[in-house]
Write a structure and sequence with these properties.
Radius of gyration: 22 Å
Structural class: alpha+beta
Strand order of the largest sheet: 4-5-6-7-8
Number of strands: 11
Order of helices and strands: EEEHEEHHHEEEEEEH
Distance between the termini: 17 Å
Shape: globular
Strand content: 25-35%
Largest sheet: 5 strands, antiparallel
Mean pLDDT: 83
Helix content: 25-40%
């Protein structure tokens, strides 16, 4: 593994796409010296030797092609939200008991002390409900690429004129915490003038790569290697 040095097995390697994923640290990278090693070519300032292979549509995405436009939908729900639902019920139950005791005892200061926990509980409840009902829609036509979240309001909506988009690529980010490294995947846009915007951030590499692939295909953007991009 290029990230942690662990020994890879045959199950960790996808030769059809010339990539490998380490089962120890979760890193995803191109296999050096293979025809799919776009990352190596990009690091040397060269174009990939061959066209990158297509990414099949992963679970969690639905795509509707209207001919003149395309709509990619990703549901937020995952098993994590079941755990968060239980935690949310316990947290807010404790807060309600706290405020109830304070009111019964006539201790207003005690209730005020729990206001921070109340705010956390409300925010957590909103996030959990959004996780069950919300989805992200990426809509693209020849005039624009639009990202919106709903039906519950959520920040991160974007509207980018298609004429400003020079390239779309994916990048892996790694953050280190108490539970080990966490991997996230950004779908990024290179605008004309070489400024870069993050279109959206996902937890699934295949979803990010598929969104990149389909947006480039629909917008008629030639896929070119970008230094540091996620291999596919």
């Amino acid at each position: 593994c290029k990230n942690c040095g662990a020994v890879l097995t045959a199950d960790n390697v996808d030769m059809t796409r010339a990539i490998a994923r380490c089962e120890h640290c979760g890193a995803l990278f191109a296999l050096a010296g293979t025809e799919g090693g776009a990352e190596t070519a990009a690091a040397q300032g060269a174009e990939p030797a061959v066209k990158r292979r297509d990414v099949p549509m992963p679970k969690g995405l639905t795509v509707v092609d209207f001919g003149t436009s395309i709509e990619i939908t990703r549901r937020w729900f995952c098993p994590l939200f079941l755990f968060l639902l239980v935690f949310c019920v316990i947290w807010n139950g404790f807060v309600l008991v706290w405020h109830g005791m304070a009111l019964v005892m006539g201790a207003g200061f005690m209730s005020c002390f729990g206001l921070l926990h109340t705010a956390v509980g409300i925010g957590l409840a909103y996030y959990v409900v959004a996780g069950f009902v919300n989805s992200t829609k990426i809509c693209a036509d020849r005039s624009q690429v639009e990202v919106r979240h709903g039906p519950l309001p959520w920040p991160g909506a974007k509207n980018i004129p298609a004429g400003q988009i020079a390239q779309i690529y994916c990048r892996e980010t790694i953050s280190h915490g108490k539970n080990g490294p966490q991997y996230r995947y950004r779908v990024e846009i290179v605008r004309k003038g070489n400024t870069r915007w993050t279109l959206l951030t996902l937890d699934d590499a295949d979803q990010a790569l598929y969104i990149e692939q389909e947006l480039e295909r629909h917008l008629g953007i030639e896929d070119r290697s970008v230094h540091g991009e996620l291999p596919r």
